[in-house]
Amino acid sequence: MTAKIVIQGVEKSFGPKRVLDGVDLAVNKGESVVIIGGSGSGKSVTLKCILGILRADAGTITVDGEDVTHIRGSKRDTYLRKFGMLFQGGALFDSLPVWENVAFGLIQGRGVKRGEARDIAIDKLAKVGLGSEVANLSPAELSGGMQKRVGLARAIAADPEIIFFDEPTTGLDPIMADVINDLIASTVKDLGVTALSITHDMASARKISNRIAMLYKGRIIWEGPTENIDSSGNPYVDQFIKGSAEGPIKMEVRR
Amino acid sequence: MNFLASIGRVFLSFLAGTGRLSVFAGQAVSHIVRPPFYLPLVGQQMLRIGYFSLPVVGLTAFFTGAVLCLQIFIGGNRYGAEVFVPQIVVLGIVRELGPVIAGLMLAGRVSAAIAAEIGTMRVTEQIDALTTLSTNPMKYLVVPRLVAAVISLPFLVAVADSIGVLGGYVVGTQSLGFNGAVYMKNTMDFVTNGDILSGLIKAGAFGFIIALMGCYHGFNSKGGAQGVGAATTSAVVSASILILAANYLMTSLLFSE
Ligand SMILES: Nc1ncnc2c1ncn2[C@@H]1O[C@H](COP(=O)(O)OP(=O)(O)O)[C@@H](O)[C@H]1O
Ligand SMILES: [Mg+2]
């Protein structure tokens, strides 16, 4: 059986800067994989290449056996219906009320009637622990944690097969971060979706994943089951999970 | 040598920019005619671009008409040509100043607002979010603004023309001693439908430029708040320059008998 998402040798540069330098990764159906790595290591770029928002310079990406490396136009719109995405900063549409944010993919992408879409949106908001009283607020009126939840509700609104979480806990206090982690873990389990998340928060990575892969200098340098992360024997991984300044990973700090 | 090289670089980046802009414009136009259409968004944008610009456009047109009348009177006075003031004012307003003043005011008001809004959506990943929700950002964001601006501008210019003529009329009758009825008759008898139409055609083209520049610079903004600020400035500056250049080009084409 081939994996749900297969990334092979994906490269991506911005001008002279090589961000991805041959990334290989496979995500099986129903699995929750977390990519860890430092800020700016290309984690978000990897997700955007899979979604076709950025184009890989080289390599192939297949989803459900279909080569989607160069997918575009209306084919891409159809392809993207498989996905829900929680963006790093939420990326809620600030011109629309909360419920329309959640229902956006249903109304615009699938032509569901507004009334029906609103009921679904309120149902999804309840799933992430938000009452119907927030439905008519504007996203700017919500706290960071609530915005993440709305983003999560939007990501699951159209019952996707695959969900991407881009740094779901960044910028939240530890307690809210844990609430979001629990939400993600239960969402993935209850909906039976395939999840690919990226984070540099190890507590989050441990809680929401079955498998962890570490991205460093544009490549996956280690991957394995979450329970093996502490015995990886990889000095880069060890340094990262300890959050230590000492080790093989040198931060480029200009003095 | 170094000097030539830098001229070459500037020229090449100019060509690359022109190419990118043309591709963007081509894509936007091709999406206008392909479904899905977001008609409510067009209406919403017409309200923002057209209706809410009425006060600015009206005020600037009024003072432009007024000062035009005054200057032509002072200038014409030297040759005893002050009787032609109403005719020259209406021609100047309808053919040139109405469209150009309205266009420039909207370059400031609308291009800037569009660039800031779309630029913020770009840097906060809202545009990527649209894509992942199977909604084409070109269709959802750019097309409604382009269509609304192309439709709204001629109406705004028609209003600007009327108020501009009114500004001349007020100055002419209140401080220059023209008879009101004569002033109006001279104005109406002189101006032709062709004059008015030429201004409205220009207005449509300016509307396209205004929305296109706002969208293009917003779409291509990067970085954070600073990038959005730069995009806003570029949108206003480039829209203004393009409006003046297009105006010259269209005048030379439309009045080339
Ligand atoms: N659209 C883009 N244009 C140019 N550079 C980009 C773009 N997107 C990302 N980058 C660069 O790629 C690198 C990796 O970014 P990203 O994937 O967002 O990092 P992270 O691992 O923190 O998510 C960064 O150095 C960033 O500046
Ligand atoms: Mg990122």
Structural description of this entry:
The complex is a heterodimer of chains A (255) and B (257). Chain A is α/β, with parallel strands linked by helices. Chain A is 35% helix and 24% strand. Chain A contains 8 helices and 10 strands. Chain A has helices spanning 43-50, 73-79, 98-110, 114-127, 144-156, 174-191, 202-208, 235-242; strands at 5-14, 17-27, 32-36, 58-63, 66-67, 83-86, 162-166, 194-199, 211-216, 219-225. The longest helix of chain A is centred in the last third of the chain and has 18 residues, at 174-191. The model of chain A has no long low-confidence stretch (mean pLDDT 91). Chain B has one domain (2-254). Helix content of chain B is 85%, strand content 0%. The longest helix of chain B has 39 residues, at 85-123. Chain B is elongated and about 65 Å long. The model of chain B has no long low-confidence stretch (mean pLDDT 94). At the A-B interface, helix 2, strand 6 and helix 3 of A face helix 5 of B. The complex binds adenosine-5'-diphosphate (ADP) and magnesium ion.
Strand content bin of chain B: under 5%
Helix fraction of chain B, binned, reads over 70%
Largest β-sheet summary of chain A: 6 strands, mixed
Name the structural class of chain A: alpha/beta
| Radius of gyration of chain B, in angstroms, nearest whole number | 21 Å
Compact description:
The complex is a heterodimer of chains A (255) and B (257). Chain A is α/β, with parallel strands linked by helices and 255 residues long. Chain A has helices at 43-50, 73-79, 98-110, 114-127, 144-156, 174-191, 202-208, 235-242, and strands at residues 5-14, 17-27, 32-36, 58-63, 66-67, 83-86, 162-166, 194-199, 211-216, 219-225.
